[in-house]
Write a structure and sequence with these properties.
Elements (H helix, E strand, L loop, with lengths): L1 H12 L10 H29 L8 H44 L9 H32 L4 H24 L4 H9 L2 H14 L9 H17 L3
GO cellular component, one term: plasma membrane
InterPro entries: CysZ-like, CysZ/EI24
Protein name: Putative sulfate transport protein CysZ
Length: 231
């Protein structure tokens, strides 16, 4: 798929001149928050899973326990990934702009004050967060109704949200509204879910999860430039 090819190529962009300087701070944020997420997952997951398993389904604990554990692990890592993206959003937007400039060879856009870039990035991140929370509610209800399907439902949820999260950086830089972003990505649903799913899986792999954020931003920007930019 197109998005997976862009994701594989994104690793080589991490060391490109002109790109490396936009990666250092998001990398530091990622390391800190994923360390906190790993601590929370391994120290509190057992008690939380036990509290979610109803007593009348004790005879199915052998099946439900691993399914709920996987779902909670995915949700925990994705929650900390959301926090990391919220903090690093202004710098991810700068990284996306630098990658697009290098990819397309366009002149730099007119400079805007840094405080305005930070403010607009935070507003956009909050907009996305509200959408993700609204989408999480029906996903949670379905997961509780159909526990065996919970990991699949949460994976689809995280894949869609991760794709929106990372593709938003280049698309917002090009003044594409969030509603229009969602409409365009629905037209490329397979590539969109492949992109988000691959980035989500990357965040769960030790060591690689430390560079998941900049790799995701670079991959999303390459995919935007090569396949999504034209209506």
């Amino acid at each position: 798929m197109n998005t997976l090819a862009c994701l594989a190529e994104a690793f080589a962009w991490l060391i490109r001149p002109g790109i490396r300087r936009f990666i250092l701070l998001p990398l530091a944020v990622n390391i800190t928050l994923f360390a906190a997420g790993s601590y929370a997952a391994f120290h509190y997951s057992d008690a939380l899973v036990e509290s979610l398993l109803p007593g009348w389904l004790a005879w199915l604990h052998w099946l439900l326990y691993p399914l709920l554990a996987v779902a909670l692990l995915i949700l925990t890592y994705y929650s900390f990934s959301l926090m990391a993206n919220l903090i690093a959003a202004p710098f991810n937007s700068l990284l996306a702009a630098a990658v697009e400039k290098a990819e397309r060879g366009d002149p730099s856009p007119p400079a805007t004050p840094l405080w305005r870039d930070i403010l607009m990035s935070l507003i956009q991140e909050l907009h996305k967060l509200l959408y993700f929370l609204a989408l999480a509610l029906p996903t949670l209800i379905l997961a509780l109704i159909l526990p065996p399907l919970a990991p699949v439902l949460w994976f689809l949820y995280t894949a869609w949200c991760a794709a929106l999260q990372y593709l938003d950086y280049p698309m917002a830089n090009n003044a594409v509204p969030f509603r229009a972003q969602r409409a365009r990505l629905r037209q490329n649903r397979a590539d969109t879910l492949a992109c988000g799913g691959a980035i989500s899986l990357l965040t769960t792999v030790p060591v690689l999860n430390l560079v998941a954020m900049p790799v995701g931003v670079i991959a999303a920007t390459l995919y935007w430039c090569r396949h999504l930019r034209q209506p």
